[in-house]
Amino acid sequence: MFNKFFSLFVFTMILSGCVSPSPDISVVCERDDIGNYILKWETVPQINGIVKVYVSDDPDHFPKNEPSSLASISDGKMTYITNDNITRKYFLLSFNDHFYKKISSRSVTMDNVQNFRDMGGYQTKDQKNIRWGKLFRSGELSSLNEWDALRLNNLEIKTIIDFRTLHETEKAPIRYPKAKIITAPISLGDTNLFFEKIREGRLRKGDALIFMQDTYIGFVKQQGKQFAKALRILLDENNYPVLFNCSLGKDRTGFFAALVLLALDVPESVITQDYLITNDFLNLKKFEDLVKGLNTEEQETITLLLTANENYIDIALRTIKKDYGTYQKYFQKEMGLTEKEQAKLKEILLY
Question: Pseudo-torsion of CA 254, 57, 48, 100, nearest 10°?
Fold first, then answer.
């Protein structure tokens, strides 16, 4: 009897040793200056074979009958050529018809909107992924032109969450009637006054850094109820796709994005990365008039106010952990988000 079980054990071990572990496959998608999509991939360990690329306007449905393109896995990249800058494309990559990865470009092409990005594609701690085409973030939408409006139509945006104050929205209203606009106003103070103080030499780099850090601490301690209002909008599937925004899509939008990613159990390092990507998509040339005639320190002070800084999001996350112990306790005590509701958010946004 012992010999029989021992032989079975050895046979099982041999079989398990013959099964190759799944490779770690990373994929990224970028757009070049013309608008073509550049797909890149890497496998660890390196595998050989064919990548089949399927293309769709809908991230939940891909035509499986015929791939758009084929490439060798060893190539590591390919370009999808298009002259369509209105319709957003999503890609399903099939590695040897066995391993699949869904991807699109993080940025969304817009003419007059800063920092417009898709929140899809980020991976959670338990290896699930945020759905593409469901949740977007951006700067203010007051300058939409005809093409930008068509792009929003293409994204089928149903709900826009606006974190700007009443003063901001009256000065620069969103003119897009096809979406339900929900305001959750959060004030950053009088920015014109800050810039005036900088020009007068009354606000220096250290002051700007402290001010911004205090702003993010205020997000945690004083603005939890407003951010909770926005978070609850995401619990209704009928509201999607959702776009949330503020003036630059940096501070109020950046903190809310961090909260959503935390609620979905995305690692802190990825949350920080998403926050800092803002600096890649802000066109600071639009603020050149603010820095004309200023010395180097004054220009650097304004830059601290206009750009994403790791210190800002870091102090917010540390404040949550210091005051509440865990992110889950913050969601429950400060924002009123129950475990059941957090599970509902994951059900909607993860696959």
Answer: 70
Please provide the DSSP assignment of 204-267 as one string.
-HHHHHHHHHHHHHHHHHTSHHHHHHHHHHTT-GGG-SEEEE-SSSSSHHHHHHHHHHHHTT--
- CATH 2.60.40 domain range(s) in the chain: 19-103
How far does CA 12 lie from the centroid of its chain?
A: 44
Beta carbons within 8 Å of 228's beta carbon, 6+ residues apart: 334, 335, 336, 337
CB atoms within 10 A of CB 43: 19
* pLDDT over threshold 70, residue 218: yes
Q: Which ranges of the chain does DSSP label H, i.e. alpha helix?
A: 2-18, 146-155, 166-171, 191-199, 205-221, 224-233, 252-263, 268-276, 278-281, 288-291, 296-306, 310-324, 327-333, 339-349
- Write down the pLDDT at residue 10: 43
pLDDT tens-digit series, residues 321-342:
999 999 999 999 999 999 999 9
Can you identify the CATH homologous superfamily of domain 117-349? Answer: Protein tyrosine phosphatase superfamily (3.90.190.10)
pLDDT class of 161 with cuts at 50, 70, 90: very high
Token readout for 351 is 């696959």
In CATH terms, the fold of domain 19-103 is Immunoglobulin-like (2.60.40)
Q: Alpha carbon 114 to chain centroid distance? A: 14
